[in-house]
Amino acid sequence: MAETSKTATLSGAFRAARDRLAGAGVENPALDARLIVEHFSGTTRKDAILMPDHVLGAEVLAAIEAAIARRTVGEPVHRILGFREFYGLKFYLSPETLEPRPDTETLVDMVLPFVRETAEREGECRILDLGTGTGAIPLALLSQVEKAVAVGADISQGALTTARRNAGELGLASRFTAKKSDWFAKISGRFHLIVSNPPYIATKDIYGLERDVRDFDPHLALDGGDDGLDPYRIIAAEAAVHLERGGKIALEIGFDQRIDVTGIFREAGYELAVARHDLAGNDRALFFQR
Ligand SMILES: C[S@@+](CC[C@H](N)C(=O)[O-])C[C@H]1O[C@@H](n2cnc3c(N)ncnc32)[C@H](O)[C@@H]1O
After folding, report:
1. What is the per-residue pLDDT across 81-118, written as a single tens digit (0 to 9) for each?
2. 119 CA → ligand 1 middle, Å
3. What is the CATH number of the domain that holds 224?
4. Residue 87, in any domain of the structure
5. Among the atoms of ligand 1, which is closest to the Cα of residue 183?
6. What is the extent of the structural domain holding 68?
7. Which of 89, 135, 138, 208 has its CA 20 to 30 A from that of 162?
8. Do 281 and 190 sit in the same domain of this protein?
9. Is 219 exposed, middle or buried (0-12, 13-18, 19+ CB in 10 A)?
10. ipTM of predicted assembly, 2 dp
């Protein structure tokens, strides 16, 4: 990164970073260079256009250099920045949290009308998110529906600390409770909506995943057991006593799991009400009712 160290302007730092990432074979070098340079220099896209000759100090250049070095060896750009945007909101990450993915916005879009209608009709909508990670799903819903409240459950204490932080940063802490629980084990009460993006990769497939997922997302967030379906079986078997009358269950699934997951929930007495594709056209979200 010697070139960046010598280059003290905003545009120079960006070019050097982009060229370094391109040389290392990073997939979107210009985008990642921009995210890194902007973040560590505290500048915006507008600054890059309006003041390309803005001089960056030695400390900023050193931080950019360190970040570029991490990116060249495969660390995902949002892990380096420490946050990722989801549903237009900023979510801080930690080693214990999955990076929330754009595909999961499909799930939020699918359930949002139900959350709004329930909140209007009942005066509130109580949501339980199983395996909450950063809190991305329930916090996105709370940001859209003022009369909604949520419990975000996770078995990982580190994830819950991050989810609590995100709720606070987003001004949603008064309507969000982070709860340590092995699925339903410590959950009490009934909810209008149970939502989950559980770990759904078969154990044997984890080592074949893309390196940025396999090496940087926590395996606890990925591993769904022998066939990837264990969490769905638990949720299908135990959800009923936690659902309000007319309550629904919404799940993210792997691209090839629609038939299996629908079968698991049918056997437990649910019918598939809605199925949604993600932006790539893959099956991604299922909505069940009794
Ligand atoms: C695929 S990640 C989803 C994270 C977040 N909901 C999202 O969509 O970005 C699955 C989450 O389930 C949690 N998890 C794994 N096993 C669990 C269990 N037995 N009980 C509760 N949560 C669990 C993981 O810690 C992880 O946060």
Report:
1. 999 999 999 999 999 999 999 999 999 999 999 999 99
2. 26
3. 3.40.50.150
4. no
5. 20
6. 2-81
7. 208
8. yes
9. exposed
10. 0.99
